[in-house]
Amino acid sequence: MNQTVDELIPEIREELIKQLNLEGMLPEGFDENTPLFGEGLGLDSIDSLELVVLLDRNYGIKLKDPKEGRHVFQNIRTMAEYVAKNRAHV
Amino acid sequence: MAEATKYFINGVGIISPQKTYDPNVFLTDITRYDQNVLTCIAPDFKAYINPIQMRRLSRMLRIGLSAATICLRNSRISIPDGIITATGYGFLEETAKFLQEILVQGERQLTPTYFMQSTSNALAGLVALTIKCMGYNNTYASRGFAFENALTDAMMQLNENASANILIGSYDEAAEVQYKASIRAHHFKTEYVNNLSLFNTNTRGSIQGEGSAFFMLSGKPSESTWGILDDIHQVYRPEQGALSSELEIFLRKNDVTNKSIDLIISGASGDSQHDAVLNALINTFFDDLPQARFKHLSGEYCTATAFAVWLGASILKRQQVPEVVVVDTAKIARRPGTILIVNHYMGKSFTYILLKRI
Q1: Which of B51, B56, B109 is nearest residue A46 as measured by Cβ atoms?
Q2: Reported ipTM
Q3: β-sheet with B82-86: strand ranges across
Q4: Which of B109, B112, B113 minimises the CB distance to A57?
Q5: CB of B55 within 8 Å of any CB in chain A?
Q6: Tell me: the pLDDT tens digits for B297-321?
Q7: Structural domains of chain B, count
Q8: What is the CATH number of the domain that holds B296?
Q9: Is A53 touching B (CB cutoff 8 A)?
């Protein structure tokens, strides 16, 4: 299935909220460009592991290079772009 | 460093199947359960845990961290010198989820959270990380003696440094997976009873409980001291007569006679078979002494001794024995100054704990 970035954004957002138990905790104004770590959503290192598992489990993408993760997990849009480009097609 | 000769309980925090989370309230509003499983009455966690941290924590970790925070606030100590926790079975629900995930995912793509929260020392680590305590950190996962072993460790820490403050806590949860197995092993009753009538039953098994209790232990008293933990003794799977002889040695060692004890806190669990041994011991040694029981309020679990220590410390601090725990109100006469806890867990692990008023 070839989903576009815009189609992936709401899907990843929903999965992220579910996987990281963020229901009701998203800050006001949160969108696909809000940083996931640091001053944005404030996720931590355990969350980054959960995101690695999420990419593998949902899209068949194995993220092995930590430097790559730093770019991919900037925000939901960068995640969606990465998924659109690298997802495993079964 | 001075060696501790006494062990002062300088703070408490407990979350149990009764409304015990407020240290200023003492068993005034008793909760009744009708289906043999007593689960914690939790406070509003937001008062103790920040929401971003809380989202990943399991129910029992929230309860444990809140109990620890209540104790820290009660003792007015922000960072203790050491943290010791105790659990009989650890985080059973999270362990079950972790194992389930291994099965469902075919041993691949496992999320870290369930694993982290299934380890027995997760609570001690979480408390240390939350308050940034870099001191001694240890967890005892030793079934019916877990809390007792943790207490012994804390006392040994204070023997080396009397001015240290050791945060010691316990937790065990009522998990469905364990409950079913325990029913088959006759650890819990097969017929439904209400907890407040537990001691009127005459059948095998107890009722399941859970809870988390924390205490701040130090070799020095403070403004918030609840009582003194004088001594502890454990007897595992005693042979005939051993319980009596060990009790005699314990009392003699602490220079206590039955005339100087004001209250016995019995760990009777409502199990007709296991309680028979405990009741015989108490009746032989302390027949004329006032007695209190607590497992109809807490249920039975590996670290229920911690509930007994909280009950004893609360009685010493308030000089009041709540009617709901009293066996024979006619015997409650004198002001409690010395309390002996005599507990058993499943008729195998027996504990004597001596508490005194400051």
Answers
A1: B56
A2: 0.75
A3: B136-140, B82-86, B165-172, B211-218, B7-15, B227-236, B349-356, B338-345, B263-266, B291-293
A4: B109
A5: yes
A6: 999 999 999 999 999 999 999 999 9
A7: 2
A8: 3.40.47.10
A9: yes
